[in-house]
Design brief:
Layout: E1 2-3, H1 15-29, E2 40-41, H2 48-57, E3 77-82, E4 89-95, H3 106-119, E5 123-126, H4 136-152, E6 168-180, H5 182-197, E7 210-214, E8 217-220, H6 221-246, E9 248-262, E10 269-284, H7 290-302, H8 304-312, H9 318-344, H10 348-370, H11 374-384, H12 398-410, H13 413-424, H14 428-442, H15 446-466, H16 476-481
Parallel strand pairs: 1-2, 1-3, 3-6, 4-5
Antiparallel strand pairs: 4-6, 7-8, 9-10
Amino acid sequence: MLVAPWANGEDQLNQSGVALVMALARYFKRWSLWSKDVIFLITSDARAGPQAWVDAYHDTHLSNVASLPLTSGAIQGVVVLDYPTTNPWDRIHVVYDGVNGQLPNLDLFNTVVHISGHQMGVRASLQEMFAHSDSYEDRLRTMLRGMVNQGLGHATGPHSSFIPYHIDAITLQVSGIGQHDEVTMGRILESLFRSLNNLLEHFHQSFFFYLLLAPKKFVSIGTYLPSAMLIAVNFTITAIGLWIKSGQRAAKEPAVTSEKLAGTKSGLEKETLKTSTIPTTTDEYERHLVLPIAFILLTHFLGFIPLYVFNTFPTPTLSPIFYAFTTISLVLPFVLSFILHTLFKPTVQDYTLIKCFSLLMLGLFLSALATLNFSLSFLIGLFSTPFTFAAPQRKSRWWLAVLMEVALHALAPTTALVGVAVYWREDLSRILAEAAFGWAVWGMWTQVVVWCVWWPAWVVAGVNVAGTWWDMGKSAETVKQQ
């Protein structure tokens, strides 16, 4: 498929792109060498149009979209042309990120880079790194930009709508000021389509999971996946340790030690016995699971509230709702901790089990997510690392509890969303509207991970730290044990 939206993602008229697609359609029609059908698609916009077409093509559309009467079987590759200018250009910019962190086969990307660089003498760039010098800093910056795009899970172009259907797709953009024109782009597309025409089957030999450092350098999944798994395993191991700790109680019993003293002139020795009390064994005692499990289920159920609100409410109301939700979210751990203390009088074991189940759920979700969207799992795992150390403190160490609360609020999901808005220099309401659009049109499930996995774990960590301000046990010895 060759696709050209009438207006690109920045609402610019894609005049050269549409004209070139129509010219190539006439040019390709005269050839008899095609072993596959070539579909030319021009949509009204770059977001909803391609998604509606591919949904109708696969008959998975909504009721208000008609099915396509004719189809041509499985689509092997899609190239989207974003060419809004008529000025000469210097290089092509390849956009490849898909929805929910999905990526096209690396062979398609390598084919474009090889054709443009070796046959046409056109340099290729990615992740908006137009001045890539192949240095360590530029490679790192390119990789981090790709991880952010993959972690956000949003569509980066019209090609993103095709990737969830296991269709390899990319978007070609022009950038810079140079000596290349429509003829060069036409030759690149012609050579690329002839390469796709020679395929006997789908791309499958190369990688579907990778992190690009430069147009010709990448990191494979076998190298970067262990990092996300190690972060997720951290929560699981900590949860296992807390489970063991919650069922043990230190038992102190007297122990006898002997001491020999030199005594008399005759060389006789006296042996004195000394008694001391040291912990030697542990007693197993019953775990009370009803309160911790009920509390964990409650916090995860609360995550469906922001998930529903931010994906269904009108766009003008999203920004004030977000600020109101942020304010409520800041005080929610203290309110839940106060209610928990007033109604149920939780003990140290209850707090330990609550933290145990929360970290266990977090490790479980992040381990599974790492195989689907590495960047999202890795970034959430990094932001959630302080949850491992969040625990009630003694009243004498109130300053440590305050530092924990400050760290938790600095790494809250709402704070991260504001950081994304600052990073992209976008208005917060526009980002929320784009996320709601992605949920409704693209099937983006980043919000599910944020509000139903990350945010509940953050609330539980805040409740644990807030337990410092209440008397958690029935005696001072219980608090001292914690």
